[in-house]
Fold each of these.
Amino acid sequence: MKAIVLLMLGAALALANPLAAADAPQKFAIHPEPKPVPEIQFQDSEGKGLTLADFRGKLILLNIWATWCLPCRQEMPTLDRLQAELGGPDFQVLALSIDRGGFEAITKFYAEIGVKHLAMYLDSSTEAASTLGAVGLPTTLLIDRDGREIGRLVGPAEWDSSDMIAFIRSYLPKKSGLLEPEFWRANTATANERWLSVPAIPNPHATVKGAHP
């Protein structure tokens, strides 16, 4: 009897076991645990001062770039398409330029390549890049809803590739850097339902009410 109960419990736990974290695309370095992100300051296209705290509650892909950076120019259309695909209340591509030419240079570049979905953000002092430890351009950080760095990628990438979109999408359902895809949550619910629906095992020693010895 005890063996049967243990087997049933093991089956339920196996169904409820969370999936392994989605494989990160090549060159994307994921931290073992989400890391605090230093405070940085920048502006939007209206000249309003912002920090990353203003984006708390969203999954953020922070891309540090400049119009004079050739790899940055090459990957920017893919970031624009990523924003079009996933952008909304739960996710945003935050393209942070460090151009000394200001918003004029960004506006001109966006118009040249047809960017339609990315907002403009600027830190012409370049202090943000230094504070975040960006060793080259472009540098891109994936930041969870609590403002912690999940990981980063140094260099250009195809941000609208199917594997990259799937990787980023896997972090959307949760409120922290710990992976909890929709598939895991659905299967956990199913496992719980199955466990609760297992019929009780009769106790042979129980006394049936009304029975005679």
Amino acid sequence: MKRTLIVLALLCVAVLVLHSAQVTVQGQGQGNGQGSGGSSEVQAGRRAVPPEITLNLQGRNPSRVYEGSYYVNGVSDCIGCHNGPDTDESGNAIPLAERYLAGGQNFGPVFSRNLTPDVNGLPAGLTFERFVQVIRQGRDFKEFPPVIGNPDTLIVMPWPSYRHGTDRWLRAVYEYLQSVPCLPGGPLENAATRCDE
């Protein structure tokens, strides 16, 4: 009888240990690049690239670019504000390929910026160092009205939340933006020719 109780107790302990190990293994995806669906940010980012958009991956780290896509097209929702309007003044539909991250959404006194790379391959015409200042400090290098603060500070962009992003997040977003097609648009004098060589 004593032997049976010991065997039963050992079996119970073994079941608890196995159950605990299973729960631990199932939970390892969180915070480890393995979202709840078992998909990494890179895999999810690859799927998030709109089919109308052809990325330029030449000379780039595809994993970092697709991780950036995961943020731009997904959790950071850059496309929510930075895709251009979906119709023109006459109400005609504008294809996504002609407005993807090209800015121009009206937010009262301000509008979203064109994030596509210029002819020099710089997203929104910004070097990486300036891009970091935009995201971390809300710095507006375009200095369009209304001017707020000194230096000019972005008033709609959620940079107060984005400023907490990691260096890896910033680099991935920047490299993704470098890989998207250049599109004309924006308020600069060269807006129509910003993609011409």
